[in-house]
Amino acid sequence: xxxxxxxxxxxxxxxxxxxxxxxxxxxxxxxxxxxxxxxxxxxxxxxxxxxxxxxxxxxxxxxxxxxxxxxxxxxxxxxxxxxxxxxxxxxxxxxxxxxxxxxxxxxxxxxxxxxxxxxxxxxxxxxxxxxxxxxxxxxxxxxxxxxxxxxxxxxxxxxxxxxxxxxxxxxxxxxxxxxxxxxxxxxxxxx
Length: 191
Fold this sequence. Notes:
The model has no long low-confidence stretch (mean pLDDT 90). The chain is mainly α and 191 residues long. It is built from four helices and no strands. Helices cover 79% and strands 0% of the residues. The protein has helices at 5-77, 84-116, 128-150, 167-187. The protein has one domain. Helix 1 packs antiparallel against helix 2 and helix 2 (84-116) crosses helix 3.
């Protein structure tokens, strides 16, 4: 039997071309699918950070800010009709009410959110203002319980941890960064 080497060579080249072509298409498809999966995972992560941490956190902080503003307005109007003792008692009751009905539940929600969703923080690190807020909330909650249970109203302890003034701006900055990242990811082609 004679082997037609010219024909065999053509068949070999055709087979090799087919194999190389299949391998190249497979590699290209696999890379495209990997990129699409990474993009989908990044989109899911950013959406989760926004929906489960930064947006609710901002909402809670805005509620606390509004409650604080409303409380301050009310306190300035409680004059006791000129009776200083009555004014002081009314103001103490108003403070107790606002803390019990507004600040306390919001502190608990924010603290819980920061503890349970810590893994969603940008860069995996808690900003200093968030740490300060947690200290502030713990102190406020403890002081309120002392006030509620023992009637001790003050003076506030030295070294009292105040509301961090950059807390809201850090949340806003994180949310803005995440929205920018979300827009960048959404503009990338999905293939």
